[in-house]
Structures are given as C-alpha cells and as structure tokens.
C-alpha cells in the first residue's frame, strides 16, 4: 500500500461550488530517498523562507501520536497509531446505568484502558493515547490529527479514521463544525484551519472532495447526481484517484464550513432516499494540498556556488503534494444478517463488506503479511495509497461507557489493538494455556540450570578433594623415599666406615703378622669385599623399589588428571543440554507467538463464522469438559474448572453450561474438593453464572449459600473470598430470594468475609449489601415487607456506617447507596441514628460525587420525621 511519494493526480478537476480548476504546474516528483522518514522531513524548516510560510502551525507536542511515531517508529514507517476516546455518559445512560459502573476505566497517564469483564475482573489494553471523557476536542486534534496534517503539508499522504459503535462519538470527533462554540470544532475543521494557515493562496492550492461510500457505491456528497464514482489506480505508482469526483478549491475557512454543511445535507438526503441511516455508510473527506517551495535550490548547485541567478530563475518551481483523507467509518456494530432490520441478506453483506475488508487489511499489515487484500472492497482500494510507505495513519477508536454495550465495546477495542501490531496486543483468553506452557517451560529451564549448577559445584569439590588427596600421597611417598634413601645412606656409610676400620685393623694385623697368613687374609678380604658388594646391590634394589613407588604414584596422579578431564567434558555436555533446552524454549516461544497470531486471525474470522457454529458440537465439547470436573487427576480437574470458568465468563455460554449440569458440578466441587485453586476458580464461575436470575434460584435451591460460606471460612487467598463475596453479592440482588438468603446465613457470611480486610473483597461485600438494601427497600415500598431491615437485624449497620466514607471508591459508593436505601424506611431510622448513620447521610447529601445519590440522601433527610428530629437534636442546621 505504499504511496511512492504521495502524488495525487485526479485528472480533470470539476468544481460545483466555485468553479476553480487547478493550475498546471511542473511538479518535481520527490524521489523516495529525499526523505523516507515522514517524521523528519529533510527540507522542513518553519523559519526558512524555503517553506513558503513562516507563521502559523505549531509543531505537535512530542507526546502526540505522530510525534511519538517519529521517535519510536523510525524503523516502522506506516505503523497505524491508535488512540481510544471514551464518550461521557449521556442523559439516558446516567439514568439507566445509575447503579452500574462504566464498562471501561481509563488510566490516561499509563495509556491504558481497563475493560470490565464483570464485577471482579478486568482486561487491560495499551494504546498510543488514551482520551478520557474529559478530553477536549483541541487535545484530541493535537494528539490524533496534528502530526498527520503536518505530514500532509510536507508532501506525504495521511489518513485519519474513526472507528466505533454508532453513537460513541465518531462524527463528534471528526465532523463537529463548532458553530455554537468554537471549542467543539472537530478534526476536519481544525485540520483545514492548520492547512490554510500554512499555505500561500497565490502559489499553493487546497482542493477538497467529500464522498460517501454505501453498499460499495461511491457517491459525491458535493454533487448528488454523481452517485457512482469509479476508482482509478495507477498500476505503476499505486496512486489512487477519483477522476469523477467534484474537487472544490478552498481559500478560506468559511467556504470549507459551507462545503461541509452542504455535504452533510446531501448525505442526509441521499440516505433518506436509500432508506438507510448515515451510521451505515462511510463518509470520506479528501484534501489535496499542493505547495510550491519557493527558491528551493538543489543541494549540489548551491553548495558549489556556480549557479547564476539566470539559471535559478529558469528552474521550475518545486511542488509538494500531500493528500489527507479523513474517514468517518460506518458504525462497527454487527448488522443483522438475517435481514430483519429491513435489509435483504445481500444488502446486509454488502453494507458490512468495506468495514470487514478494512479489518482484514489492518490485520495483514499488522502481521507484515505478504498479501494485503486491498482489492476486496472500495474502502480499502481508496485507502491504498494512505497506508504504509511514507504515509501516516491515525486511528481513533471511540467507545461508550455503558455496560450494556460491553460486547461492542470489546470488539472495538480488539480492532484498535489489532491495528496497533500484534505484539502490542493483550493475550486472548485462549492464550492462557500457551502462557502457562511457556511459564512451565521457564520453570523447567530454571530447574535444569539449578541442577546443572549444583552438579558442577559438586564436581569441583570432588576434584579438589581428589587433587588434594593425590598431592598428599605424592608428598608422603616423596617423604618416605627421602627417609629411606637417607637411612640407607647412613647405614651404608656406617657399614662402610666399619668395613674400612676393620680392613685397617686387619691390615695392621697383617703388617704385624706379615708373611704366612697373608694368603689366607687376602681370601678373607675378598670375602669382605663380596659382602660389601652384596650390601651395595641390596641398597640399589631398595632404591629401585622406592623409584617404582614414585612412578606408581605419578601414574595415579595422571589418572586423576584424566578423570578430571572427563568430568570437565561431562560439564560441557550438561552445558550443551541446557543450551538445547533454551533453544527448545525459544522454538516453543516462536510457536506460541505463531499460534497467537493465528488466534488473532481466527478471532477476526470468528466474527464471520460464528453464525455457522454448530451448536451440537459445542454441546458435546462442553459435556466432555464437565465430565473432567470429576477426573481422578487433580491437575485435570483444575484445568477443567478453569476452562468452565472461562466459558462461564461469556454471557452467551452461561445458559448452555447450566443446562448441561455445569452449575451443579461447580457447586459440588466447592463441597468435595480441598484444593483452594479449585475453590477460587469454581466460585468465580458460580459468581458469573449468578448474574442471571434463573441461575440465582438454582444456586439457592442447591444449598449454594452454605457451600459458599463454608468455602469462605476455609479460604486463605483473598481472591477466593472475592469470588465468594461476588457470588453472594449477585444473589443479594434477587428480589425473590431475600428471606431465604438471609435465613441461610448469607448476610452473616458476608459480615464474616469482611474480616479479611482486602479492599477488593470489601468492595464485593459492599456491593452485596447495597444490592440487598435496594431489593429490601423496593419490597418495603411495595408493601410486601414490613419491619426493620434484615441487614440491621443481622448486625450489618455498624460496618456499613464505618465504611460509608472509605477511601476506596467502590466500597464507599456501595455503602452510600445502601445507607440511602435503608434510610427510605422510617422503621430503620432509629437504629440508623443510634449507629451514627445520620452524620454519613448528611455528608452524602452534600459531598457525594453522584448527583442522584446526593439528591436521594437530601430528600430522605428532609422528609423523615425521625431524621429531622435527630438533626435538630444534634443541632445540625439542614
Ligand atoms: P457516532 O458518529 O459514533 O455515531 P456521534 O458523534 O453522532 O456518534 O455521537 C453521538 C452523540 O454523543 C451525539 O449527541 C454527540 O454529541 C455525543 N457525543 C459524542 N462524543 C461526545 C463527547 N466526547 N462529549 C460530549 N458529547 C459527545
Ligand atoms: Mg456518525
């Protein structure tokens, strides 16, 4: 989808408003190499006369979407930058969702969005920018659109798209004219203001066309008779043009506003004629900006200083062309394929086509897929030269706060996530197993490394020990040898001396005796000499033996050295094994990421095929999983209960799970298992199932309260308590079950659970109490209940009062609500006054951020005789 430099040739330019045409200008096509990075245009310099204008447009802040792109995406041109914008609650939602929290929670400083799965679970997603319900239109423009507009002024193509469910603020974000209050101006108006501030009317041109795409037919919103415009693509450059579309030259902001108004009127008329709503069609504003760069010299001629002014004046002006496309996409909600909303099946398919083709292209681009199916729809063909390459694209996804549209909101968020690249995406639920597999492998690897280190250490110690022992033995042998040699030497010396002495004596005697004995003596001497010789040879053999001993020890030492070498090679082998493990792990991680990307693909495809889902197959699968809840192997049981809990988190599965006996099995698991993980996960699943009234009755009739309270009393993990409290809290919201729930100890169980003190657990307890108080109040108003509140009977009031001003907002909000409900009925007033609830009610009526709760507290205080008397007694002026 690269644009190859951002040239737009729209052929003949027609104009229905002002009758201007484009002037023919010699355009110098920029080679891509001049500046392949849109974030740092080579010849962009606001203060330089070369740009033609020195005033006006401020640079977008570094924190903005495109600014960020310049920094972190230098190597990833064309990365779609995605912002999410939350619409504030509207009047209807403020009333209808009064008791419910928003389905999303934003953390703009972390650029995160938390999507509530239910009362106790959220998924977290990161975006390039997170815009809260308080974000001004100015800020939205600056972070989403300004970098793109700057790129267009520098000669690049840019696209700004809004995607989201109908009614979430796409048109508000893009198309507001801001006539009543200029602060409300949307992206289109602000973009044109910035463009007009930068161009010079004498030499530059700004041409606009405005179109609607409905059922793959492209209509000209500036000329309603022109309702089947064809798209022309230049095969070589990939440029897209609409020769048939009206092009209006814009010279001032006023004429642009008129053009938008006219387009909107035509859109309305066209849609009435086609009997559809504008939410079904895509609106496309195309702005072609052509700027002449005055006096720009190619670098080589100005550098060497050889150019003459004559040559300069003959040089054709340099022209930069950029195209900005602003797309207000059709509502992302699924169109009923049955045709029940007045469309035939064929129409429904065609209405969806461009949007789902866009989704597929974004997927393919995000995954760097070799094939991007741009040709599948008109929208993607139109946006072909606005994606990738040197173009900048910003997507703003709009969501509403209502928990009733959670499904649509979730799918919008997933679209945004896919547009942000696969790596950035939060793992889907199914990926849990891959994650745990990776974790298991990590642990195994850690174990292997530890084991290897332990063995290596033991080896080293052993080798040290053997070396020391060998050394000892060698030195001992050397010592022995030296001793033996010394001893022999001394003995030999002594013997020798003695022999000499004897010989001398004998010689003396010989001298004396002379003569006849001489011969005999000679023989004797010869014998003596022979004896000495014998002694000498004995000495020599002893010495030999000692030498042999030394040799022996030496060879032992060599052997020891050899075994050390073999130990070293063993260590090397182990190291290799560890490396292989690491390699294997990397391979598995690769597989995991491949599977994840396949999952991604599948998740998008799943939208299309879920209609074809074979319910029976699903049912058989479910039966199998449920049967595994009773498996012998504890691991299998844990996995099965996790799978059931994941399924139970989806509202569409809940009925099937209950019908297949899943609820019964989960309750049974609470009673029969000792494993806390099983307790926690099963209680979570039960809590999910307990959102439905029919299931609440089933849970109660199967002894749910006592099972949940026992589970709570054994729990060590606060998350288990949170699940249990969540389940009971859901049961508390059932009008029909009030007495039974209290009778079976439901309220007492909640009051036991608060001892854990964990704020998430307390929030669930407070929710249960508020639910209970609300039902009770309703029953009292209808006359079906008389007497004091069962909450007060069971001793819940002190806790409610104590936590009505808790720092944790969910705990505070629910307890405030509970107090307001209790205060509705005069029978409760005395207890409430004596427990100090009156002070809290006064505070709520003045400080509570929720207007409806404030008003309720105020009304109650003003109308209850007991409270009025109490206020007087306490001298509170009210
Ligand atoms: P979409 O084009 O997505 O169908 P709209 O832009 O028509 O939605 O918005 C639906 C309603 O919500 C309009 O009345 C609009 O004024 C209002 N609205 C949308 N976004 C905001 C916002 N950020 N602040 C105040 N009102 C908004
Ligand atoms: Mg709209």
UniProtKB/TrEMBL annotation:
Chief subcellular location: cytoplasm
Bias kind Low complexity: ranges: 17-28
Record carries keyword NAD: no
GO molecular function: ATP binding; microtubule binding; plus-end-directed microtubule motor activity
The UniProt record lists the keyword Ubl conjugation: no
InterPro entries xref list: ARM-like, ARM-type_fold, Armadillo, KIF11-like, Kinesin_motor_CS, Kinesin_motor_dom, Kinesin_motor_dom_sf, P-loop_NTPase
Protein name as it appears in the record: Kinesin-like protein
Species per Swiss-Prot/TrEMBL record: Gossypium arboreum (Tree cotton)
